[in-house]
Design brief:
There is one protein chain. The chain starts with 11 loop residues before the first helix and ends in a 7-residue tail after the last strand. Strands 1, 2, 3, 4 and 5 form a five-stranded antiparallel β-sheet that branches. It has one helix at about 10-65; strands spanning about 75, 80-85, 100-105, 110-125, 130-140. The chain is built from one helix and five strands.
Length: about 150
């Protein structure tokens, strides 16, 4: 009564080969989608880095023009990047660099003071933007009463 079902094994190799082909196809599709995703991530990282360096260039322009607080106009850095003072909304009318005036500093008497400034810039590259804000001080400057002999 015990019939052996596996006596006729014709076609088993075909089924196993098709299953292996299906598994390899799924692995290939997964690898392609992962590669596409990673390429997109690295492209976005490059655009962000370029925008950061454009914004950093704007900071350097602003620091070089202190204590003058005129705005940094839209300045092309390269064929695809630029910088300006202010936020992305201020691209068409950049903002002045901000001055916080004179302030005393520990270790200096009242006849000396420092000037404090804030520089905000935005860098753009391929539609990617980065904003930077830097606060700096210049000095010491003579302030208060100076006695001359």
């Amino acid at each position: 009564m015990g019939k052996n079902i596996l006596i006729n094994e014709k076609g088993v190799a075909l089924i196993i080969a098709l299953m292996m082909l299906l598994i390899l196809t799924l692995i290939g599709i997964s690898a392609i989608s992962t590669t596409t995703f990673e390429t997109s991530i690295s492209g976005n990282e490059r655009v962000g880095t370029d925008a950061f360096y454009a914004s950093e260039a704007g900071i350097q322009i602003g620091l070089n023009q202190l204590p003058d607080t005129k705005p940094i106009p839209v300045t092309p850095i390269g064929a695809d990047s630029s910088c300006w003072s202010g936020s992305p909304l201020d691209k068409n009318s950049p903002l002045n660099l901000r001055s916080f005036g004179l302030y005393p500093k520990a270790g200096f008497d009242v006849s000396w003071s420092f000037k404090r400034f804030q520089v905000n810039t935005t860098g753009m590259s391929f539609k990617g933007t980065k904003e930077l804000e830097v606060q700096t001080r210049l000095g010491p400057f003579g302030s208060g009463t100076q006695y001359n002999n």
